[in-house]
Write a structure and sequence with these properties.
Blueprint lengths: L2 E4 L23 E2 L11 E5 L4 E6 L4 H10 L5 E8 L3 H13 L2 E6 L7 E7 L6 E2 L1 H4 L9 H8 L1 E4 L13 H9 L3 E5 L2 E5 L7 E4 L4 H11 L5 E5 L5 H13 L2 E3 L5 E5 L10 E3 L4 H14 L1 E6 L7 H9 L3 E5 L2 E5 L9 E2 L11 H8 L5 E5 L10 H6 L3 E5 L2 E5 L8 E3 L3 H13 L3 E5 L2 H6 L3 H7 L3 E5 L4
Parallel strand pairs: 1-12, 4-17, 5-16, 8-9, 12-13, 20-21, 24-25
Antiparallel strand pairs: 2-6, 3-25, 3-26, 5-7, 6-7, 9-11, 10-11, 13-15, 14-15, 17-19, 18-19, 21-23, 22-23
Helix pairs in contact: 1-2, 1-7, 4-6, 5-6, 6-7, 8-10, 8-12, 10-12
Bound molecules: uridine-diphosphate-N-acetylglucosamine.
Subcellular location: Cytoplasm
GO cellular component, one term: cytoplasm
Keywords: Cell cycle, Cell division, Cell shape, Cell wall biogenesis/degradation, Cytoplasm, Peptidoglycan synthesis, Transferase
Length: 468
């Protein structure tokens, strides 16, 4: 068995010849549809909101469901994913998987559930060529590489898109798969990969990359022999993927730790399953941020406190109090938030995805807080938008120094990405006057009805579609 240490420079490039997505299966309630550009001019209008009260139910995690969907490439059969968030990235991933040959039906969740169900049929007729225009739209498109190479020994895909936080290389994905026997041709058009059956390898990541861990997992479960992944990422969404793979018949040890040992099996021994997507911890934290900035006390149903441990502890340092039970958490705002210093880190550290929320909260907290970004140097682009609301934030390299002001004031701002967009909506609720957030299509990629959920808590927020 070979041992390979991973890391280094990115093989970035773009554009691959498009092939048309396959649609048109019927007989069900809803069918996966391409991205709807008609909502791209929508704006969210948030007005100063008093204390929030009531209950919000959080659906499944974007960062889990997209990988669970990719995992269905591994074995034939009919899968059902439940607790699936109603978000655009699920639609884009569904289109991508349909273009590869899966059939996906969206089914409204039964009464008492949130989100939707996905029925995914894998008949084995897979064409491992991912159309550029779909792969380019989401980061998670790269997660089809592992299962496709593992099962079919072939992949042709554009380099992945997604939120623009600066460079987002995939060198660790490719080097890991190379260590297992894959050969890649990386050009400005994308990636073409080939292999015989992948072989187990001993791999140590330089950095616990979420995406690389997931790709290596999905490749190694059907490889010949045993694969060890050291310094692997261990986010709750990766545990969720491992749980589904194990139900399918995959043999994985060390789930939830940074050392994963995977004993490969033949794809023909795997079976399709039903799986409930883990709760979205970032959406849950968004509602904590909302009550923290507006005041009040809310119940966040389905939030899993254990998955948010470090973040909840830092929120507690800011003065928010929590009551935790197995079904959710109650978050109660202090009179005024206190400033803290916080640094983003891989799980179990404070996730980079929480950071725009924390910066927004600090902008009206008592004192000065320093936020350090350790994952994506470019992930401070929304600061300019928060400044338009009156926030006092200066950037020094990968640190943001946030001096709390007494109040924010409404303005027109632009959502630069999913999480920053949500943070601007929440900040708008705390700002005096009216805040108009445009480019909400970013928010739609990862948030399931944020406006309806906030309004349900008493927030003054609405979504409008400007006339042409
Ligand atoms: C996932 C999440 C994203 C989250 C991030 C970190 C999805 C769809 N997205 O992204 O919301 O912010 O985890 O928690 O699940 N890196 C390399 N080479 C690689 C892979 C990554 O240098 O081959 C670097 C990245 O540029 C980044 C860091 O490692 O600086 C973390 O990336 P990674 O953990 O892989 O994040 P994603 O899986 O892309």
């Amino acid at each position: 068995m070979r041992r390979k240490r991973l890391g280094g420079q990115s093989p970035l490039g773009h554009a691959i010849e498009a092939s048309p997505p396959i649609h048109g299966h019927g007989g069900s309630i809803l069918i996966a549809m391409p991205f709807d550009p008609t909502n791209s001019h929508d704006v969210i209008v948030a007005s100063h909101s008093g204390p929030l009260f009531g209950e919000v139910v959080v659906p499944g995690a974007k960062n889990s469901v997209l990988k669970l969907m990719a995992a269905t490439l591994l074995a034939d059969g009919t899968y059902r994913l439940t607790n699936v968030p109603v978000i655009d990235d699920v639609d884009i991933m569904a289109d991508l998987l349909e273009a590869l040959g899966l059939r996906i039906t969206k089914i409204a969740a039964p009464r008492g559930e949130v989100g939707q169900h996905l029925e995914i049929v894998n008949s084995g007729a897979i064409r491992p060529v991912a159309p550029f225009e779909l792969a380019d739209r989401i980061r998670a498109s790269v997660n089809v590489v592992g299962p496709l190479l593992g099962r079919f020994g072939e992949i042709d895909i554009a380099l992945p898109g997604g939120d623009d936080f600066g460079g987002r290389p995939i060198d660790m994905h490719l080097r890991g798969l190379e260590a297992m026997g894959a050969v890649f041709d990386v050009t400005s058009d994308g990636i073409v990969g080939r292999c015989q059956r992948l072989r187990g390898a001993d791999i140590e990541f330089d950095f616990p990359s979420v995406g690389a861990t997931e790709n290596m997992l999905m490749a190694s479960v059907v490889a010949e022999g045993t694969t060890t992944l050291r310094n692997a990422a261990r986010e709750p969404e990766i545990v969720d993927l491992c749980e589904m793979l194990k139900k399918m018949g995959c043999r994985i040890e060390g789930v939830g730790t940074s050392n994963l040992v995977i004993h490969g099996v033949l794809p023909s021994t795997l079976q399709s399953v039903t799986h409930c997507v883990v709760t979205d911890r970032v959406q849950a934290a968004t509602y904590v941020a909302a009550v923290a900035m507006c005041g009040g006390s809310i119940r966040i149903e389905r939030a899993v406190a254990e998955h948010m441990g470090m973040m909840l502890s830092r929120f507690t340092d800011m003065g928010i109090s929590f009551q935790i039970d197995p079904a959710g958490i109650v978050a109660t705002a202090p009179q005024r938030l206190s400033s803290i210093d916080v640094a983003t880190l891989p799980y179990p550290g404070v996730a980079t995805d929480y950071k725009p929320l924390v910066v927004a909260m600090l902008s009206i907290a008592q004192g000065v807080g320093i936020v350090t970004e350790n994952l994506y140097p470019g992930r401070f682009r929304y600061v300019e938008e928060l400044r338009k609301l009156g926030a006092d934030i200066s950037i020094d390299g990968h640190h943001a120094v946030v001096r709390g002001v007494d109040h924010l004031r409404g303005a027109s701002v632009v959502a630069p990405d999913i999480r920053a967009g949500a943070a601007l909506v929440v900040a708008g609720l705390a700002a005096q006057g009216m805040t108009e957030i445009s480019d909400v299509f970013h928010i739609d990629r990862g948030y399931d009805d944020i406006v309806g959920r906030l309004a349900g808590l008493g927030a003054s927020v609405t979504r409008i579609r400007p006339e042409n």
